[in-house]
From TrEMBL:
Bilayer disposition of the protein: Multi-pass membrane protein
Keywords: Membrane, Olfaction, Receptor, Sensory transduction, Transducer, Transmembrane, Transmembrane helix
Keyword Phosphoprotein attributed: no
Residue ranges of coiled coil: none
Subcellular localization(s) per the UniProt record: Membrane
Organism field: Sipha flava
Protein name: Uncharacterized protein LOC112685168
Gene Ontology molecular function terms on file: odorant binding; olfactory receptor activity
Length: 143
């Protein structure tokens, strides 16, 4: 499980950075093309906007997938803890205790950094950062 998270973490981080740069580039291109005085094709603007939406949806799916994975893993841990272990025989109690210890030792969650989890909050942070960068680029273009 640790090796899966280690490998997936690199893939998710690379994908998030790549998709964020695509969002910034495509949105800036859309704004520049839309605000230019030249007549641009509506089809071209739709292509840019649809690419932007597709990449946003891709980041959303990654974040939602790992949030669901973390929630399901936490619910399994909670279900084990909430079971009626007091009425079990000694062998079942030991097995349940072993499962609880194993889940607590391997308390893994997909993280983008040591403190930040990959979840919908991370998705909103990515979109907010992209928006801030795009607004700075547009403001420098106007000056």
């Amino acid at each position: 499980m640790k090796s899966y998270y280690k490998c997936s973490r690199l893939i998710v981080l690379a994908n998030t950075v790549f998709c964020s740069s695509i969002i910034i580039t495509m949105t800036f291109t859309f704004i520049v093309t839309f605000s230019s005085s030249e007549l641009s094709s509506v089809f071209y603007l739709v292509k840019i906007a649809s690419t932007d939406l597709y990449v946003c949806f891709q980041i959303y799916l990654y974040c939602k997938l790992f949030e669901n994975l973390n929630n399901k893993k936490d619910s399994v841990n909670f279900s084990i803890y909430s079971s009626d272990w007091t009425n079990m025989n000694l062998k079942s109690k030991k097995l349940l205790l072993l499962a609880m210890n194993m889940n607590n030792v391997n308390w893994l969650q997909m993280k983008a950094s040591p403190r930040r989890h990959v979840d919908l909050q991370q998705f909103l942070n990515v979109l907010t950062t992209c928006y801030n960068i795009i607004s700075v680029m547009v403001n420098t273009l106007k000056k």
